[in-house]
Specification:
The chain has a single domain (7-15, 45-98, 116-313), classed as UDP-N-acetylmuramoyl-L-alanine:D-glutamate ligase, CATH 3.40.1190. The protein is 32% helix and 23% strand. The protein contains 11 helices and 14 strands. It has an 8-stranded mixed beta sheet, sandwiched between helices. A 4-stranded mixed beta sheet has the order 3-2-7-8, with helices on one face. It has a two-stranded parallel sheet with strand order 5-6. The structure holds adenosine-5'-triphosphate (ATP) and magnesium ion (MG). The site of adenosine-5'-triphosphate has 21 residues, from helix 9 and helix 10.
Length: 317
């Protein structure tokens, strides 16, 4: 069979930088100025963390998203390139700036403001059906942050399935808390659905995970629910697997654990590994994420990931 594959995984997603301010003297007040001791500017967004970490695991990843023409756009593209994510299909908006999240850290808690900017402008027309034919898997994250794509999710996933791809979707949080996407029109075309506990219960307007899954399993394929330090669960119409966490007694932070979990799952899934192995490896990558600050620091390269997995979690791969 000829090899027409451009990427193993195409990520369609939101892109933004995170400006993280630390050591802030008190809460901001209108009309006054306060000082912060530290600031870092780093690659943000669930989709970009997923893409970077999946690429570090050795999967060939391409990205479609939209940024502005400002310096933040350059920062995002450089960071993705550093992790060998292909960025040639990332579009530049001439009418608005790159998305950004300003995070004010107060100890364990943070207040965040997000400007969605260019990420709102990505639409289904930006996704060339010919490109879909050259990739094996489509992953989409942060449905509610991508206003221009949201209404066309059923169409996009259907198009991907018709082009012979496998697909995955992480809905992420809905800042408007309306949770208004038609799951019954989308999930039949999604091979792996990857919400967390709060997202699946809000999306299905139920109070617990079992009831939520029961509501959608008839028209879903593989449903994986992330439940923080309780672990994760997987359902298909025939299987139910419970995955405990890999215990980390010295957590740095959990930023991006869900995206790293997704990267682990999709890395194994696209290598056609059994579902129990996909889920276990996902949990391992979620745990690896918690050993270093932020979402991508633990994932500098495969050797380093293997090193963390064996020294911190006694797991060799
Ligand atoms: N403290 C922890 N120790 C070990 N593993 C963890 C820890 N927190 C999370 N994980 C692993 O990572 C997975 C995903 O984490 P979580 O449930 O927080 O995802 P999420 O809510 O989607 O996160 P995100 O905020 O990154 O979107 C968990 O199911 C678990 O396997
Ligand atoms: Mg998440």
């Amino acid at each position: 069979m000829e090899n027409k594959t451009l990427f193993d995984v195409l990520v369609v997603g939101e892109l933004n930088v995170d400006l993280i301010l630390d050591g802030i003297e008190k809460f901001p007040e209108i009309g006054k100025e306060i000082l912060a001791k530290n600031m870092i500017i780093t690659l943000g967004s669930s989709s970009a963390i997923f893409a970077s970490n999946l690429s570090a695991l050795g999967t060939h990843v391409g990205f479609i998203g939209k940024v502005g023409t400002d310096n933040f756009a350059d920062k995002i593209i450089t960071s993705l390139n550093k992790k060998r994510v292909n960025t040639e299909y990332i579009l530049r908006s001439s009418s608005t700036n790159t998305g950004a999240t300003i995070a004010l850290n107060y100890g364990e808690d943070r207040a965040m403001i997000t400007f969605t900017g260019a990420m709102d402008e990505l639409t289904i027309d930006d996704i060339n059906p010919e490109l879909l034919k050259k990739v094996k898997h489509l992953h989409l994250s942060s449905t509610f942050l991508q206003k221009g794509l949201k209404k066309d999710l059923p169409k996009l996933f259907k198009m991907a399935k018709q082009a012979g791809l496998t697909t995955s979707l992480d809905p992420q949080w809905d800042p408007s808390e309306k949770w208004d996407i038609p799951l019954n029109d989308i999930l039949p075309y999604v091979d792996v659905f990857l919400p967390n506990r709060k997202e699946i219960t809000n999306l299905t307007r139920t109070v617990d995970i079992d009831k939520a899954v029961k509501k959608i399993l008839d028209y879903s394929n593989i449903v994986v629910v992330k439940d923080g330090s309780n672990g994760a669960y997987l359902w298909t119409s025939e299987t139910h697997i419970i995955q405990p966490i890999f215990k980390n007694s010295n957590i740095t932070d959990c930023i991006g654990a869900g995206d790293s979990f997704n990267a682990g799952f999709i890395d194994r899934f696209t290598r056609k590994k059994p579902l129990a192995e996909c889920l276990e490896f996902a949990a391992l990558m979620g745990a690896v994420n918690t050993t270093k600050p932020g979402g991508t620091t633990a994932f500098s390269n495969l050797e380093e990931i293997r090193n963390i997995a064996s020294t911190r979690f006694n797991f060799s791969f």
